[in-house]
Amino acid sequence: MKITRIDLGTLRVPLRTPFKTAVRTVEAVETVVVSIGTDTGHTGFGEAPATAAITGETCGSIVAAVAGVIAPRLVGGEIDAFNALLQRVDGALAGNSSAKAAVEIALFDLFAQRHGAPLYRILGGGLPTLSTDITISVGPVDAMVADALSAIDRGYVALKIKLGLDPGTDLDRVRALHDAIGGRARLRLDANQGWSPKQAVRTMLGLEASGIQPELLEQPVPADDLEGLKFVTTRIATPVMADESVFGPRALLELIRLRAADIVNIKLMKSGGLSNALRMADIAALHGMPCMIGCMLESRISVTAAAHLAAAKSQAIHYVDLDGPALCAENPVEGGADFDGPTITLTDAPGLGITAVAGLQTVGL
Length: 365
Fold this sequence. Notes:
365 residues; alpha/beta; Enolase-like, domain 1; 8-stranded parallel β-sheet; 4-stranded antiparallel β-sheet; 13 helices
């Protein structure tokens, strides 16, 4: 199976409601879709969303990285030389983690198709069914409570609550949600770097003293403040999860060395794709650190890949935050995992099982 072409297209998928965090407000998924064709007629799919506020990448930079630097290194390559292809992607240029992830996902898709099995089995097997949480965007208290109750009515038992605008108001938000939910769902708090270390400790101690025990607190402080993250972790009872502080395996090792967090959130767009995400899951497992598998605002393509990883690495990945497709108002992807409320089901189709993507705006290489 030889790579004969690499095609790029941009895709815009509107969200059901605006996605609001302490870092950004988004109204649609904007992503670059990569399709890699072969001489056997097989096609592998990958994608990379534009998340300039997190990875520094835009649709334009992703297209430039793939078309101008990565693709020329891959065309003509054999899928059977899989590790060599992955090394070409990783060594093509510095940074650009989402662009690399998109290409890697498509290569893993093809590798699994080459062997006639769904990707999660190629990665080691596991159960094909997962349960994800869903995000409750930051906003007025009444609106957040209404969104949370609606999610519970749709079967969600874990809610990821976006915070980080103001510690005092955030306290009111969590207390109102806790009272309204009445123990029917677990609360995962995500401050998206919005608090200082002292604000985070003060806020969480206030919640804990009032009898509210969230399941976890995600990235309370700025990404580059590992000492601040450790300050919070050592002073509150709620487990602390690192997200933007950890992009790849080396950063994870430093996090573990400092004991700066209890949990790590693995995202394909941060790690540069599945190969580093697999390494991170293994490193975390060796050190007894549980992981979350997360996503940016992505379509079914890359979220399906993340779900396959979570199924294969369930000994390390204890938390699932793959709600991107559930937040979209429509689904342009044919095939892939089945998303039914909180339940994600992987199919037996080879690779990712994706056969087509509608609405693509072709980008010339």
